[in-house]
Amino acid sequence: MDLREYIRDIPDYPRQGIVFKDITPLFLDPAALREAIDGLSQYAEPLRVDFVVSAEARGFMLGGALAVRIGAGFIPARKPGKLPREVNTVEYALEYGVAALEVHQDALAGGARVLVHDDLLATGGTARALCDLVEQAGADVAGCAFVIELAFLRGRERLAPHDVHSLIVYEDE
């Protein structure tokens, strides 16, 4: 199955000059959704991770399902002010602004193996922030998994030396 058929381009969103990759059509089709989860799982299972950590909000959509499929726990990385206990926070730059993510301080411990997951890898800001949150806690990033990668934005380079796996790679704008 070619998952590219289930990705819709939305020009000039969220601002002029950005082409947003909409994965909603993939979520609407049960076979495409299953294919995406299967593809991510095939990468993740051999990594033997303890947790999948995903960014709010689109990362949550597949992150929890992926965690269940591979027998791992799920850690939500939330926007500031959404978690009720002590948190670790990291700020990062997006291709169109600045943001922050938080995880509970007690969500990760040293030695845990973690898969970083999000729906899309663009400049690598969000994924790098997730890796930083994992590493701040003393845990290890076992790999990074994405549905879509915009290779022309070179986000993979920001994640070095971590292994990166993407189901769909767009080489050109």
Give a brief rundown of this model.
With about 170 residues, the protein is of the alpha/beta class. It has five helices and nine strands.
Keywords:
five-stranded parallel beta sheet, 28% helix, alpha/beta, 35% strand, 173 residues
Describe the structure in your own words:
The protein is an alpha/beta fold. It has helices spanning 24-28, 30-44, 58-70, 125-136, 155-158; strands at residues 8-11, 19-22, 51-55, 73-77, 87-94, 97-104, 113-121, 140-150, 164-170. The strands form 3 sheets. A 5-stranded parallel beta sheet has the order 4-3-7-8-9, with helices on both faces. A hairpin with a 7-residue loop joins β1 and β2 (19-22). The protein is globular. 38% of the residues are buried.
Helix fraction, binned, reads 25-40%
Strand arrangement, largest sheet?
4-3-7-8-9
Terminal Cα separation, in Å?
23 Å
Query: Order of SSEs, N→C?
Result: EEHHEHEEEEHEHE
Low-confidence stretches: none
Radius of gyration: 15 Å
Q: Describe the largest sheet.
A: 5 strands, parallel
- What is the total tally of β strands? 9
Mean of residue pLDDT values: 94
Shape: globular
Category from helices, strands and their pairing? alpha/beta
How many distinct helices?
A: 5
List the helices and strands and how they pair.
Layout: E1 8-11, E2 19-22, H1 24-28, H2 30-44, E3 51-55, H3 58-70, E4 73-77, E5 87-94, E6 97-104, E7 113-121, H4 125-136, E8 140-150, H5 155-158, E9 164-170
Parallel strand pairs: 3-4, 3-7, 7-8, 8-9
Antiparallel strand pairs: 1-2, 5-6
